[in-house]
Protein backbone atom coordinates (compact mmCIF):
# COMPACT_ATOMS: atom_id res chain seq x y z
CA UNK A 1 0.00 0.00 0.00
CA UNK A 2 1.29 3.48 -0.90
CA UNK A 3 1.94 5.59 2.18
CA UNK A 4 -0.12 8.78 2.50
CA UNK A 5 0.29 11.45 5.19
CA UNK A 6 -1.66 14.71 5.33
CA UNK A 7 -0.68 17.75 7.41
CA UNK A 8 -2.65 20.96 7.74
CA UNK A 9 -1.92 23.84 10.09
CA UNK A 10 -4.04 26.95 10.48
CA UNK A 11 -3.58 30.27 12.27
CA UNK A 12 -6.62 32.18 13.50
CA UNK A 13 -5.66 34.98 15.86
CA UNK A 14 -2.81 36.47 13.82
CA UNK A 15 -1.50 35.97 10.27
CA UNK A 16 1.96 34.59 9.60
CA UNK A 17 4.69 37.17 8.98
CA UNK A 18 7.03 37.06 5.99
CA UNK A 19 9.74 35.76 8.32
CA UNK A 20 7.41 32.99 9.50
CA UNK A 21 6.56 32.04 5.92
CA UNK A 22 10.25 31.90 4.96
CA UNK A 23 11.04 29.68 7.96
CA UNK A 24 8.18 27.31 7.13
CA UNK A 25 9.24 27.24 3.46
CA UNK A 26 12.68 26.07 4.54
CA UNK A 27 11.06 23.10 6.30
CA UNK A 28 9.10 21.99 3.23
CA UNK A 29 9.52 23.35 -0.29
CA UNK A 30 6.46 21.42 -1.51
CA UNK A 31 4.02 22.75 1.08
CA UNK A 32 1.26 25.20 0.21
CA UNK A 33 1.91 28.15 2.52
CA UNK A 34 -0.31 31.21 2.90
CA UNK A 35 -0.53 33.93 5.53
CA UNK A 36 -2.90 31.70 7.53
CA UNK A 37 -2.04 28.10 6.64
CA UNK A 38 0.54 25.42 5.95
CA UNK A 39 -0.65 22.33 4.05
CA UNK A 40 1.23 19.36 2.66
CA UNK A 41 0.82 15.67 1.95
CA UNK A 42 3.45 12.97 1.55
CA UNK A 43 3.43 9.73 -0.39
CA UNK A 44 6.99 9.07 0.66
CA UNK A 45 9.05 10.67 3.41
CA UNK A 46 7.54 12.80 6.16
CA UNK A 47 7.42 16.32 7.59
CA UNK A 48 10.92 17.35 8.64
CA UNK A 49 9.79 19.01 11.85
CA UNK A 50 7.92 18.25 15.06
CA UNK A 51 4.30 19.20 14.29
CA UNK A 52 3.54 20.11 17.91
CA UNK A 53 6.48 22.51 17.97
CA UNK A 54 5.24 24.10 14.74
CA UNK A 55 1.80 24.40 16.30
CA UNK A 56 3.19 25.97 19.45
CA UNK A 57 5.29 28.52 17.58
CA UNK A 58 3.14 29.51 14.60
CA UNK A 59 -0.39 28.11 14.51
CA UNK A 60 -3.69 27.70 16.36
CA UNK A 61 -4.96 24.40 14.90
CA UNK A 62 -3.46 21.24 13.40
CA UNK A 63 -4.93 18.24 11.54
CA UNK A 64 -3.01 15.06 10.69
CA UNK A 65 -4.32 12.06 8.76
CA UNK A 66 -2.38 8.91 7.82
CA UNK A 67 -3.74 6.17 5.59
CA UNK A 68 -2.76 3.41 8.03
CA UNK A 69 -5.61 4.63 10.25
CA UNK A 70 -4.39 7.52 12.40
CA UNK A 71 -6.11 10.89 12.81
CA UNK A 72 -4.99 13.74 15.06
CA UNK A 73 -6.54 17.16 15.77
CA UNK A 74 -4.85 19.71 18.03
CA UNK A 75 -5.73 23.21 19.21
CA UNK A 76 -3.47 25.88 20.70
CA UNK A 77 -5.19 28.13 23.24
CA UNK A 78 -3.95 31.20 25.13
CA UNK A 79 -2.81 30.03 28.55
CA UNK A 80 -4.41 32.98 30.35
CA UNK A 81 -7.84 32.10 28.95
CA UNK A 82 -7.96 28.40 29.90
CA UNK A 83 -8.34 26.68 33.28
CA UNK A 84 -5.65 24.08 32.65
CA UNK A 85 -6.28 22.11 35.85
CA UNK A 86 -9.96 21.74 34.98
CA UNK A 87 -9.15 20.66 31.45
CA UNK A 88 -6.53 18.16 32.63
CA UNK A 89 -8.98 16.57 35.10
CA UNK A 90 -11.40 15.90 32.24
CA UNK A 91 -8.77 14.05 30.19
CA UNK A 92 -7.33 11.13 32.18
CA UNK A 93 -6.82 8.83 29.18
CA UNK A 94 -4.39 8.69 26.26
CA UNK A 95 -6.58 9.45 23.25
CA UNK A 96 -7.23 13.02 24.37
CA UNK A 97 -4.70 15.08 26.28
CA UNK A 98 -3.64 18.59 27.29
CA UNK A 99 -0.22 20.08 27.86
CA UNK A 100 1.06 23.49 28.95
CA UNK A 101 3.77 25.55 27.28
CA UNK A 102 5.17 28.93 28.28
CA UNK A 103 2.26 30.86 26.76
CA UNK A 104 -0.31 28.30 25.65
CA UNK A 105 -2.34 25.22 26.43
CA UNK A 106 -2.43 22.61 23.67
CA UNK A 107 -5.31 20.15 23.54
CA UNK A 108 -5.01 17.08 21.31
CA UNK A 109 -7.49 14.44 20.10
CA UNK A 110 -6.22 11.24 18.46
CA UNK A 111 -7.52 7.95 17.10
CA UNK A 112 -5.58 5.07 15.57
CA UNK A 113 -6.45 1.87 13.72
CA UNK A 114 -9.42 3.18 11.76
CA UNK A 115 -11.43 0.77 9.67
CA UNK A 116 -10.69 0.95 5.89
CA UNK A 117 -14.17 2.39 5.22
CA UNK A 118 -13.37 5.36 7.49
CA UNK A 119 -10.15 6.40 5.71
CA UNK A 120 -10.04 9.66 3.74
CA UNK A 121 -7.51 12.18 2.42
CA UNK A 122 -7.91 14.58 5.37
CA UNK A 123 -8.64 17.71 3.35
CA UNK A 124 -12.10 18.46 4.77
CA UNK A 125 -11.49 18.11 8.50
CA UNK A 126 -9.88 21.45 9.34
CA UNK A 127 -12.83 23.47 8.07
CA UNK A 128 -15.24 21.18 9.91
CA UNK A 129 -13.43 21.26 13.28
CA UNK A 130 -11.63 24.57 13.66
CA UNK A 131 -14.48 26.48 15.32
CA UNK A 132 -14.19 24.14 18.34
CA UNK A 133 -11.37 26.45 19.41
CA UNK A 134 -13.82 29.33 19.79
CA UNK A 135 -16.11 27.05 21.78
CA UNK A 136 -13.33 26.27 24.26
CA UNK A 137 -12.35 29.93 24.59
CA UNK A 138 -15.87 30.85 25.64
CA UNK A 139 -16.04 28.00 28.14
CA UNK A 140 -17.96 25.39 26.12
CA UNK A 141 -16.31 22.11 27.17
CA UNK A 142 -18.52 19.69 25.26
CA UNK A 143 -15.69 18.70 22.92
CA UNK A 144 -13.54 17.73 25.93
CA UNK A 145 -16.36 15.62 27.38
CA UNK A 146 -16.67 13.88 24.01
CA UNK A 147 -12.93 13.24 24.25
CA UNK A 148 -13.48 11.66 27.67
CA UNK A 149 -16.14 9.42 26.13
CA UNK A 150 -13.59 8.36 23.50
CA UNK A 151 -11.17 7.34 26.26
CA UNK A 152 -13.98 5.34 27.91
CA UNK A 153 -14.88 3.72 24.60
CA UNK A 154 -11.25 2.75 23.96
CA UNK A 155 -10.90 0.98 27.32
CA UNK A 156 -8.42 3.52 28.68
CA UNK A 157 -10.44 4.14 31.87
CA UNK A 158 -11.39 1.85 34.73
CA UNK A 159 -15.07 0.86 34.54
CA UNK A 160 -15.60 2.08 38.10
CA UNK A 161 -14.31 5.57 37.34
CA UNK A 162 -16.92 8.33 37.55
CA UNK A 163 -17.57 10.63 34.65
CA UNK A 164 -16.56 14.32 34.86
CA UNK A 165 -19.18 17.04 35.22
CA UNK A 166 -21.59 16.65 32.31
CA UNK A 167 -21.74 19.86 30.23
CA UNK A 168 -25.06 21.22 29.07
CA UNK A 169 -26.04 20.80 25.46
CA UNK A 170 -24.94 17.21 24.75
CA UNK A 171 -28.35 16.70 23.26
CA UNK A 172 -27.98 19.83 21.11
CA UNK A 173 -24.74 19.10 19.28
CA UNK A 174 -23.48 21.63 16.75
CA UNK A 175 -22.11 20.68 13.32
CA UNK A 176 -18.45 20.96 14.52
CA UNK A 177 -19.17 18.69 17.50
CA UNK A 178 -20.82 16.14 15.20
CA UNK A 179 -17.76 16.39 12.94
CA UNK A 180 -15.53 15.65 15.95
CA UNK A 181 -17.63 12.55 16.68
CA UNK A 182 -17.14 11.44 13.06
CA UNK A 183 -13.42 12.33 13.07
CA UNK A 184 -12.77 10.26 16.20
CA UNK A 185 -15.35 7.53 15.40
CA UNK A 186 -17.03 7.99 18.79
CA UNK A 187 -19.95 5.61 19.34
CA UNK A 188 -23.12 7.67 18.87
CA UNK A 189 -25.01 5.35 21.21
CA UNK A 190 -22.50 6.24 23.91
CA UNK A 191 -23.04 9.96 23.22
CA UNK A 192 -26.80 9.45 23.41
CA UNK A 193 -26.45 7.62 26.73
CA UNK A 194 -24.30 10.42 28.13
CA UNK A 195 -26.73 13.12 26.98
CA UNK A 196 -29.53 11.77 29.21
CA UNK A 197 -28.29 13.84 32.18
CA UNK A 198 -27.17 16.86 30.14
CA UNK A 199 -29.25 19.98 30.62
CA UNK A 200 -30.46 22.08 27.70
CA UNK A 201 -28.09 24.82 26.62
CA UNK A 202 -29.26 28.37 26.06
CA UNK A 203 -28.19 30.17 22.92
CA UNK A 204 -25.20 32.52 22.96
CA UNK A 205 -25.35 36.31 23.34
CA UNK A 206 -27.41 38.19 20.83
CA UNK A 207 -27.00 41.61 19.30
CA UNK A 208 -28.79 43.38 22.16
CA UNK A 209 -26.63 41.77 24.89
CA UNK A 210 -23.38 42.61 23.14
CA UNK A 211 -24.56 46.11 22.30
CA UNK A 212 -25.55 46.81 25.91
CA UNK A 213 -22.19 45.55 27.19
CA UNK A 214 -20.19 47.59 24.67
CA UNK A 215 -22.16 50.73 25.59
CA UNK A 216 -21.11 50.17 29.20
CA UNK A 217 -17.40 50.30 28.31
CA UNK A 218 -15.39 53.46 28.80
CA UNK A 219 -15.02 55.67 25.73
CA UNK A 220 -11.25 55.06 25.62
CA UNK A 221 -11.77 51.29 25.62
CA UNK A 222 -14.24 51.50 22.74
CA UNK A 223 -11.79 53.64 20.79
CA UNK A 224 -9.02 51.09 21.39
CA UNK A 225 -11.29 48.30 20.16
CA UNK A 226 -11.98 50.19 16.93
CA UNK A 227 -8.28 50.81 16.38
CA UNK A 228 -7.48 47.12 16.97
CA UNK A 229 -10.25 46.06 14.57
CA UNK A 230 -8.88 48.39 11.90
CA UNK A 231 -5.21 47.46 12.28
CA UNK A 232 -5.26 43.72 13.00
CA UNK A 233 -5.82 41.40 10.07
CA UNK A 234 -6.30 38.30 12.23
CA UNK A 235 -9.04 37.27 14.64
CA UNK A 236 -7.15 37.96 17.88
CA UNK A 237 -8.98 41.18 18.70
CA UNK A 238 -12.36 39.52 18.14
CA UNK A 239 -11.42 36.49 20.25
CA UNK A 240 -10.16 38.78 22.99
CA UNK A 241 -13.32 40.87 22.92
CA UNK A 242 -15.65 37.86 23.12
CA UNK A 243 -13.52 36.22 25.80
CA UNK A 244 -13.79 39.35 27.92
CA UNK A 245 -17.55 39.49 27.34
CA UNK A 246 -17.98 35.92 28.53
CA UNK A 247 -15.71 36.50 31.52
CA UNK A 248 -17.73 39.54 32.62
CA UNK A 249 -21.13 38.08 31.73
CA UNK A 250 -20.88 34.47 32.81
CA UNK A 251 -24.32 32.94 32.26
CA UNK A 252 -25.73 30.83 35.06
CA UNK A 253 -25.02 27.17 34.33
CA UNK A 254 -28.08 25.20 33.24
CA UNK A 255 -29.73 23.43 36.18
CA UNK A 256 -28.33 19.94 36.56
CA UNK A 257 -30.63 17.01 35.91
CA UNK A 258 -30.93 15.07 39.13
CA UNK A 259 -29.18 11.71 38.80
CA UNK A 260 -26.78 9.40 40.56
CA UNK A 261 -23.13 9.82 39.51
CA UNK A 262 -22.42 7.50 36.58
CA UNK A 263 -19.38 5.34 36.06
CA UNK A 264 -17.67 4.34 32.84
CA UNK A 265 -19.32 0.93 33.17
CA UNK A 266 -22.76 2.54 33.59
CA UNK A 267 -22.36 4.54 30.38
CA UNK A 268 -21.02 1.60 28.37
CA UNK A 269 -23.94 -0.57 29.54
CA UNK A 270 -26.46 2.17 28.70
CA UNK A 271 -24.95 2.52 25.23
CA UNK A 272 -25.23 -1.24 24.71
CA UNK A 273 -28.91 -1.14 25.68
CA UNK A 274 -29.54 1.69 23.20
CA UNK A 275 -27.76 -0.26 20.45
CA UNK A 276 -29.79 -3.42 21.20
CA UNK A 277 -33.07 -1.50 21.22
CA UNK A 278 -32.23 0.11 17.89
CA UNK A 279 -31.31 -3.27 16.39
CA UNK A 280 -34.61 -4.79 17.59
CA UNK A 281 -36.58 -1.87 16.18
CA UNK A 282 -34.77 -2.17 12.85
CA UNK A 283 -35.41 -5.94 12.74
CA UNK A 284 -39.13 -5.37 13.42
CA UNK A 285 -39.33 -2.74 10.69
CA UNK A 286 -37.62 -5.11 8.24
CA UNK A 287 -40.02 -7.92 9.14
CA UNK A 288 -42.98 -5.62 8.50
CA UNK A 289 -41.53 -4.53 5.16
CA UNK A 290 -40.86 -8.16 4.09
CA UNK A 291 -44.45 -9.12 5.01
CA UNK A 292 -45.80 -6.14 3.08
CA UNK A 293 -43.82 -7.04 -0.04
CA UNK A 294 -44.86 -10.70 0.22
CA UNK A 295 -48.54 -9.73 0.49
CA UNK A 296 -48.16 -7.37 -2.47
CA UNK A 297 -46.52 -10.10 -4.59
CA UNK A 298 -49.28 -12.59 -3.71
CA UNK A 299 -51.92 -10.01 -4.62
CA UNK A 300 -50.22 -9.37 -7.94
CA UNK A 301 -50.08 -13.13 -8.69
CA UNK A 302 -53.76 -13.47 -7.84
Specify the biggest β-sheet: 7 strands, antiparallel
Proportion of helical residues: 40-55%
Q: Which secondary-structure class do the elements indicate?
A: alpha+beta
The topology string of helices and strands comes to: EHEEHEEHEEHHHHHHHHH
Spatially, the strands of the biggest sheet line up as 2-3-1-4-5-7-6
| Contiguous uncertain segments of 5+ residues | none
Question: What Rg, in angstroms, do the CA atoms define?
Answer: 23 Å
Please tell me the total number of domains: 2
Total strands: the figure is 7
Terminal residue distance: 56 Å
Strand proportion: 5-15%
**Gross morphology:** globular
**Tally of separate helices:** 12
- The averaged pLDDT comes out at 88
Please, could you describe this protein's structure?
The model has no long low-confidence stretch (mean pLDDT 88). The protein folds into two domains: 5-201 and 263-281, no CATH class; 203-248, no CATH class. With 302 residues, the chain is an alpha+beta fold. A seven-stranded antiparallel beta sheet has the order 2-3-1-4-5-7-6, sandwiched between helices. A hairpin with a 3-residue loop joins strand 6 (96-100) and strand 7. The radius of gyration is 23 Å and the shape is globular. Helices cover 46% and strands 14% of the residues. The chain contains twelve helices and seven strands. It has helices at residues 18-27, 51-58, 84-90, 125-129, 132-137, 142-153, 175-184, 188-195, 207-216, 219-231, 236-248, 264-301; strands at residues 5-10, 32-33, 37-42, 61-66, 70-78, 96-100, 104-111. The termini are far apart.
